[in-house]
Specification:
Helix 4 runs antiparallel to helix 5. The chain has five helices and two strands. It has 128 residues and is mainly alpha-helical.
Length: 128
């Protein structure tokens, strides 16, 4: 009859018996919940209305409240160490044996610079 391992034929026979898959659209309620959208264009239009309403509402929090929120002091020492560590990780992640960039500094020199170079780069970038 047919080879049981031939799934393509099995699915073809199932489609012949039951017909092809029919796609259907789940109805979507209108904004006032009085009618249903059953077509793709109506549903897209309704989603557009929904997100327009969602994102165009004015804020209920006054500017005065926002401006008077308590602010924490910035601890610059913590930021500095974190930034230097990030610079060191970035330098360590560079690939050697590549052509120098616009600054004409070979990667091997950056790798040899270590912590001192990372501190200097941090101060240079912080001053910008």
């Amino acid at each position: 009859m047919y080879n049981s391992k031939d799934l393509k034929t099995v699915y073809h026979l199932i489609r012949q018996v039951f017909g092809s898959r029919s796609s259907f659209v789940v109805p979507f309620k209108s904004n006032d919940s009085c009618s249903l959208f059953k077509d793709h264009e109506g549903i897209k239009k309704r989603w557009s209305e929904h997100f327009t309403d969602l994102f165009s509402n004015p804020s209920v929090i006054g500017e005065y409240v926002i401006r008077n929120l308590p602010q924490n002091d910035i601890i610059h020492a913590m930021m500095e160490n974190h930034a230097i560590d990030g610079i060191k990780k970035t330098i360590e992640g560079l690939n050697t044996g590549r052509v120098p960039g616009l600054d004409s500094i070979p990667v091997e020199i950056l790798l040899q610079g270590g912590n001192k170079l990372a501190v200097h780069i941090h101060h240079l970038v912080s001053g910008i």
